[in-house]
Amino acid sequence: MNKKLVQWLFDTKAIRVCPQDKPFWYTSGTIGPYYINTHFLYGSEEKANALLELIDRERVNILYCPSRVFAAVWENYNADSIYKGIIDEMISFIKEKIPLEEVSYISGGERRDWFFSLVIASILDKPHITIYKDLKAVLWHKGEAREPENISGKVLHIADLITEASSYERAWIPAVERLGGDFRYSLVVVDRKQGGEEFLKSRNIEPYSMAEIDKEFFKTVFSMGIINEQQYQMLEEYVKNPREAMRQFLLKHPDFLENALKAGDKNSERAKLCVEKNIYGL
User: Rounded to two decimals, what is the model's pTM?
Assistant: First the structure.
């Protein structure tokens, strides 16, 4: 485990672990002990949100957007030590693990992939396939952008996070393949170990990640003194069986659900969803 990356993930709050008696409410109506916002590795939540706002303003002009986003990330690369550190680590990883001579293009999908893919493509001097959610794609290289009719060659996709690979299946892979590209490699900053790797392998895509959220990851976090023993135990149980771990928590802490339902905030809506869907069979 790359301890520098682990420290950066927590320094920027890209990963947050809850207190042992207060798991987070997720939008799905489930609860869990950690949150992941990989794009906070841009330096901070504030910086990341500012870049998302820039993307939202500029993406209406699909040809101009990549240059505007690149200008921002390049400026931050030269100003923020954590962001520069993660980009440099990813580039070293690519050079060590992936045959760059076989890679003709680097791709990234709207929006958070662009935090990483554009600057890496520029440093490695590879054309960047900027993929939008509607499957439109722009080829960007050395400040020039065009809508490609077709491409040929192997593609390395760079993403911030992978869970079940639904974005890959819905948009990123089809967008590359409709152009004639060979979607061959994928590198993510964080793999949540929820089936994405297996999906990519089933499509003959070689998956790579900088960090995997599993028992060993949290063991490293604990050994570094970032979390305490109670937090580690909760995380360990959650990794084994998320639903059962949180079901047991709710059985032991009945006030947690009751208080959430009464809170009158976004957690109330999530708690209501939990009850309506009977997620934990209580």
Answer: 0.94
